[in-house]
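Anyone able to model this chain together with zinc ion?
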Amino acid sequence: MSKSSPKAACAPASKAPSAHLPDGEGIIIAHHGITVEVRFSSGERCMVRVKRRSGHVVGDAVLVKDEVLERLPRRTELRRRDAMGGVHLVGANLDVVGIVVSPAPPPPNGFIDQAIVAARAAGLEPFLVVNKCDLEVSADLVAALSAAYADSVEVFPLSASTAAGLDELRAFFAGGHRGAFVGTTGVGKSSLLNALCPEIDLQVGTLNEHTGGGRHTTTVSTLHSLAAGGELIDTPGFNDFGLVDISVQELSHYFPGFGQSPAENCRFRNCRHRTEPGCAVSALVAQGKLPADRYAAYLEILDEVEASEAQARSRGRKG
Ligand code: GDP
Ligand code: ZN
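re: yes, here you go
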């Protein structure tokens, strides 16, 4: 747990700002480098100074006592890998992750599966957003993705441009979910955030991870409350989540479409569902209950994850 000495600047929504920092529990709703904005359980919001590398992130629950801010243990952590391979923590205590895809640009091979596995491994519930449903070509994608994923995760076909389907997503968040969107550049994450939280006003189509853009040069991220309920972190530059440290074990446990707990149905607890005897997953394929292309997608990712684990092991031996 890290403690910071806060310099208070509080602004109750309607009353005059108070210089005094209240005691109590709160949550970090914005991060600006050396200050964080804390929303207290009372609804009061305060800017609190923290050390530059405090490690606090949006979504962190904190306890403020005698002007000292203490971070409480996290339920979940959401990480991303940037274009240079660095790993960043972008949010704490989220419970859902929306994987955003579109017909143009289409999802890269394996992207959805890896994002689902990574979300589940992090203790988050993934759901799928198929954006740009105003485009005629989207019908095929929606049909294919619904067939492959509807049994495993919720699927929301929608259009950030026309607002079609947005109410279903709002209703999902209104159930009390706190989440973030992930997806490759150009699928419409900024557009979707703007449509759901009109106060954000992200620049569409211009955000760039290397240069930053608009407010994101100063504000790392913000947790927005949705009008109908639920909360969203604005992370529009969040592209290749899903590729962060998936282990073979996580892949074999969480791959979508294998049922609730495949490992318990296989003879070996650490079954990789490849050629092991008594494998419940190969049995599903043989019975035609698991489509061959889904199984092939799994084996392809398994090869990659095994290769990167072997690489990491050999680096470890050398180092
Ligand atoms: P991001 O990179 O994921 O944040 O994507 P943007 O929100 O910047 O959108 C990328 C491009 O897709 C922009 O030209 C948007 O106008 C366009 N776009 C976003 N949502 C939709 C949609 O629902 N329908 C259509 N047709 N275009 C969209
Ligand atoms: Zn198996």
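The radius of gyration is 21 Å.
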